[in-house]
Write a structure and sequence with these properties.
alpha+beta, five-stranded antiparallel β-sheet, six-stranded mixed β-sheet, 11 strands, about 325 residues
Length: about 325
């Protein structure tokens, strides 16, 4: 199937969707990482976005700074990482492209794709450029990169969304996306991303889902100076210790395997009996994040309504 332009690219995506719905394993096996690059991403760059595949794109570009190798460096500004068809775009792959963006000053945005899923990223410092002179982030995130927009070829407006990243508009699109991300973080009046009302609402919805701004119960206390990010608190009795760390968004985290039951018999005969199994399982295996210290206690005693105060100091 020769690619001759935008309509042919759309036909190819339609063919791909049909093949995947029929579980055509031959298509999936043929489209390894290099296959996705050649059959999908290069045609996307040329026929939907309007880039010159010879002049605007550097392939397997190795950076001077960290010797990272990018699958594509587009217009010396946008990096694209390709994975085999339908590969899971897991945290490991996301962390990889985030590091590429983070450590290279000339890159503010990136795209990770497996041919069917497309995840766009923005650098935090790029979003910060749109702060006012006296303005700062309402919540200071640890991550230097924002996972900003995720779309799939099955989305009804897949091509409409992709069309906003054309060569002559993509930088302005990323600027408007960054401004909208800022409104989510700082809870200010939302800004328009594109002129088309229906498409704009869809983009705002998708970006809101991707950013997922969290605001924990202790955020105002952080902003007032009562607490600091990273400060350690603990609920402690003679028989147990539940330590937490304050996160930058006002939530609290129990680090894995840090809850201590000092007297098993006494705890087993107290309201905290449920914590014995929790400390041996969920809280031992991984970190757990809560909106409020009250939520920690609710889980520890397996009750939603608290009739007294449990102080974390």
């Amino acid at each position: 199937m020769a690619i001759t332009g935008e309509s042919s690219f759309k036909q190819r995506i339609g063919y791909l969707k049909d093949a995947l719905s029929k579980e055509n394993n031959e298509i999936a096996s043929n489209l390894n990482e290099k296959g996705v690059e050649c059959a999908i991403l290069i045609p996307l760059l040329e026929h939907i976005w309007g880039f010159d595949a010879l002049q605007d794109v550097k392939y397997e570009f190795t950076s001077d700074k960290r010797f990272d190798r990018f699958d594509f460096l587009v217009d010396d500004k946008l990096i694209i990482e390709a994975k085999k068809l339908n590969a899971s775009l897991n945290e490991s792959l996301i962390n990889q492209i985030e590091k590429y963006i983070k450590y290279h000053d000339f890159i503010n945005y990136g795209l990770l794709s497996n041919g069917t899923d497309y995840i766009f990223f923005l650098k935090k410092s790029f979003v910060r450029e749109f702060l006012g002179p006296e303005e700062k982030f309402r919540v200071e995130y640890d991550s230097e990169i924002f996972k900003t927009l995720a779309i799939n070829i099955e989305d009804e407006k897949f091509f409409e969304i992709m069309s906003i990243f054309k060569k002559n508009t993509y930088q302005e699109t990323f600027r408007q996306m960054a401004k909208y991300v800022l409104t989510l973080i700082n809870k200010t009046r939302t800004t328009k991303i594109v002129d088309d009302k229906e498409l704009n609402l869809l983009l705002q919805e998708r970006i809101s889902q991707a950013i997922n701004v969290q605001e924990g119960a202790l955020l105002k206390d952080i902003q007032s100076g009562k607490y600091t990010v990273g400060q350690k608190l603990a609920f402690e009795t003679e028989d147990l210790i539940i330590p937490v760390i304050i996160l930058n968004d006002g939530r609290v985290k129990i680090q894995k395997n840090t809850v201590k039951v000092k007297d098993m018999d006494k705890v087993d005969n107290s309201e905290f009996k449920p914590i014995i199994d929790i400390a041996r399982n969920e809280w031992k295996a991984s970190d757990t994040i809560f909106n409020d210290t009250k939520d920690v206690i609710r889980m520890a005693i397996n009750k939603q309504k608290l009739y007294k105060t449990y102080d974390f100091v």
